[in-house]
Amino acid sequence: MYSISSALEHLHNRLADDLPHSPGFCFFDAPFPLNDSFDPLAWLASQPVYPQFYWQQRSGEDEAAALGALRHFASLPLAQQFLQQCPDDVRAWGLNAFNLQQGALFLPRLEWRREGGQAILRLYLLSEHSLHDDAVHAADFLQTLTAFKPLASAQQVCVEQRHVPDREGWETLMAQALRALDKAELDKVVLARATDYAFSNAVHAASLMAASRRLNHHCFHFLFAFDAQQAFLGSSPERLWRRRGTALRTEALAGTVASHDDDQQAQRLADWLMSDDKNQRENMLVVEDICQRLQRETGALEVLPPQVIRLRKVQHLRRCIWTDLQTPDDALCLQLLQPTAAVAGLPRREAWAFIQQHEPFEREWYAGSAGYLSRAQSEFCVALRSAKINGNTVRLYAGAGIVPGSDAEQEWQEIENKAAGLRSLL
Question: What is an example of a GO molecular function annotated in this UniProt entry (predicted)?
């Protein structure tokens, strides 16, 4: 692992620079020649330091591993406020909860970052008293790092499984939703199910992430390890937003059909999805909602033609939406775009209230968002196809959009298909 060891040595040598005994913020970058033998996820999971955050953009072009925290942020606006004082490419990484007032983001001590064919290893220093003293702490931090260990198999022996809600509870929940839709209290509501799996041994979050990354293509992959026992991870097909300066891209991902290993059969299912009225209506509800939210804060909106996105277990309808912000404001993006109608419903406030009142579990990080922000750019995916790990227990989440005419049995099967992306790996 020549590249990581030489990069760490380079950073350690930079700490010998004459740093002031005064408050400050700075960082050192080490060049990082890419080679096929280095896996940032395996390296990150080998370290005894937390928090840990892994990210891979769905195109595979961008990837990062962030380790240790110099500063924690309990919400995205707090992270954005801090970053206003930093150079353009300093990033905060982490999660926004379904309740967008809550977050878990951090400025890392150490960050490996790859953009396209270029990679760096970056060490941050931050102190309200003495940069010189923080360099000493950083040197101690580097001494704690270990060589990477290969990731173990994600396969486990399941000893217990429990759905929340169970099948009967789902039918009750569906009936409540359909009554609200019939009374025109809602146009759409997204109902979710959590499934708890207990295993005979502790579940290794990074191994599950690696297995998902290997099989679930065209997805954002993210892992936030809070400590050695607790983590939240996912492989999500849906972008919440991407910002480059003031250029903003978002999308409506709604409408679902099963996928298939056979290409011809998968294409027949995709053709049905493209022509199905219920799924097209569901997707256009999301498009219209996003456009209404954005129109007062952005320039002209461009809605691209619909596409079918084929994943391993399901296929989705997607329409991309492009525009420009008046100012590069990620806190505004979060406020405008989360939760989307694809994970909550319409009208947003009423759908949110229905979910809070009727769903028998707290969504926490599920259906929130994961990613990073900086002054120059940001990107967050919707935290779908996700799992919460606590020791030997894994909670998987999946949801379905309910509109007039939805059928409880079909929607239960849809969430089964969505959950299978991670469940099959366990």
Answer: isochorismate synthase activity
State the amino acid at position 10 in one-letter form. H
Q: Which residue of the set 63, 111, 171, 238 is catalytic?
A: 238
pLDDT in tens, 174-232: 999 999 999 999 998 999 999 999 999 999 999 999 999 999 889 999 999 999 999 99
The number of C-alpha atoms within 13 Å of 322 and in the hemisphere containing its C-beta is 5
From 193, 197, 199, 191, select the one nearest 166 (Cα to Cα): 193
- Point out the catalytic residue in the list 63, 111, 188, 364: 188
Rounded Cα–Cα distance for residues 108 and 95 (Å): 14
Same domain, 355 and 226: yes
The count of structural domains within the chain is: 2
pLDDT digits (tens, 9 = 90+) for 359-408: 999 999 999 999 999 999 999 999 998 999 999 999 999 999 898 889 99
Separation of alpha carbons 222 and 407, rounded Å: 32
Binding residues: 282, 414
Please indicate, yes or no, whether residues 275 and 377 belong to a single structural domain of this protein: yes
Q: Residues annotated as binding site for Mg(2+)?
A: 282, 414
Instruction: Mark whether 418 is an active-site residue.
Output: no
Please, are residues 357 and 339 in contact by the beta-carbon 8 Å criterion? no
* Alpha carbon separation from 111 to 69, 149, 231, 322 (Å, rounded): 10, 19, 19, 30
CATH of the domain at 239: 3.60.120.10
Say how far apart CA 67 and CA 81 lie, in whole Å.
21
Residues 408 and 264 in one domain: yes
Number of helices followed by number of strands (H, E) in the chain: 11, 20
Give the separation between CA 212 and CA 376, rounded to whole angstroms: 30
Q: Which amino acid is at 201?
A: N
Whether residue 84 contacts residue 63, with contact meaning beta carbons closer than 8 Å, is answered with no
What is the pLDDT confidence band of residue 1, given thresholds at 50, 70 and 90?
very low
188 is catalytic: yes
C-alpha to C-alpha distances, 311 to 320, 366, 425, nearest whole angstrom: 17, 20, 15
Given a contact cutoff of 8 angstroms between Cβ atoms, the answer to whether 189 and 402 are in contact is: yes
d(CA 84, CA 73): 14
CA dist list (Å): 190 to 41, 126, 210, 246, 354: 32, 42, 29, 30, 10
